[in-house]
Here is the input.
Amino acid sequence: MSTRRTAPRRWWQNLMYHALMLGFAGIFLLPFYWMAISAFKNNAEIFANPVQWFPMPFRWENLGALVSRDDFPFLRQFANSVFYAGSVALAVCFSCSLAAYSFGCLRWRGRNLVFGLTVCALLLPGVVTFLPVYMGWTRLGLNGTYWPLIAPFLLGDAFYIFMLRQFFLGVPRELMDAARLDGASEFRIWWQIVLPQVRTPLVIVGLFAIVYTWNEFFGPLIYLQDREKFPLSLGLFTFRAARAQEWSISMMGALFTALPMVILFLLTQRLFQRGLSSTGLK
Amino acid sequence: MPAGKNTVGAAMPRRQRRAGRGEARAGVWFALPWMIGLSVFTAIPLLLTFFIAHSRFQITGAPKWVGMQNYEAIFADPAFWTSAGNTFMFAAISVPIKLLLALGLALLLNRVTALSGFYRTVFYLPFLMPAVAGSIVFILLLNPSAGPVNLMLSAIGLDPPDWLRDPKAALWTLILLNLWPLGVETLVFLGGLQNIPKDVSEAADLDSPKRWHKLVWITIPLITPMILFNLVIGIIYSFQIFAQALVIGGTTGRPAEATLMYMVVLYRLAFRYFNMGQAAAMAVVLFAVVLLLTLLIFRTARSWVYYEGDSR
Here is the structure.
């Protein structure tokens, strides 16, 4: 857009540009391609020399093998991941819209201080807080459940609050002032006037929460011990750690761990890009 | 605090003041859950971590104050220094390379063609790959005999290493793995590039016919805020690399502790040996290092980051 120069590019310049970019695109897509084709090969074919660039034959039976293993309850873990990501997304949309509204639209003493602390929390490495939190949940006897993984999000999360606040800042103040003069309660203003204005941002935040939670690994690793309760990331890790030689199943598992997020992203790309540009600096 | 500037009638001020007070009260109420969350899950645990670092604290039983013993113990542990060195090397190599590549890619992407949307999508996709799945795929990709990467490297006449078994090359596996999702940084840069006002860009074109002049004197200075952002996030993130290292090297950092990362050693201490005190001490050390680096960067940022005059 901004690099358009006075002289138009020549056709060979365009050709070279696209050749270069398609080359890069190929490099970035190679791991996806390799995962997909390896999922439909057997072990011998995966390690065949010379390298097979296309699975011959296409081993659909790997799909059946993936969902019928006792040591990798894939469908169960898939459902767990859906539950986990969905719960966190809902919790985040609710709790963070409360805080972001307060930071973005309301004026109160101490607001800038609390928001400043929120930004600090955003930059704080998680490693300096997780040990006491872990010990606390263990004391409560909730280690081994999804409570430690979901409950904190019911109170909010610095990243999503920060992201949502950027959008709340854009809600015109006149709207709220008018409602206030009409005698609407603050809760009603939030619910009926402001939230409808940020419906799309809420969806964006929900999508980010789904992707991050789907890929979350450390939390489930330390809190969950029962294979039947694992989300997919952890299930895949555990399977691969125990059965390092069964590559077809690992690859099929990886494929179906990644695929839902890729599809979700392709369907909602424009929203993702808006979300990303809101978190980057203005 | 006054609620508005546009006071009209005589009756307005009191009404607005009341509204202002209500607004302030509502502000606190709406932020309350988060303030509780911030205290319970961040502020208090932060303080407790320092406390645990000075205690002998098995999961059960009362904690015992042990002074600096935990720090002495981790500093005497060779695994601590190995992992700290590896992590530092990893961050020192991967963050600059990632920023440079992302910047280059963003400059390339910053034009309108029929395929722009396609490119942007492709470069963003790796971010959606769960770390565990991506790492497992890379083990196959980098296989010396059956992986496509070494096949292609040999085809262009290079002598590719045995990525996963050669201790000298294994760290590069993690670096490559970390470079793959650079689309996020790229899009942040691209956002900055597209915010450069058109008149500035065109004026630069008229001033100097050399394109690199414009790049060095106009484009890069204008996106220094994004460079700062990506740099800080990149450092914080790469010092805490965990999932990839655990998949590639296990808890022992195969091969020969070459992929043993700081967080893996910390995890091992806490959840294999249940030594919460030493794990907390490691967490405090990491926190201090990251904090110091971040402050240092923000300190120098004043001299190299350009902020528009009308900052809000």
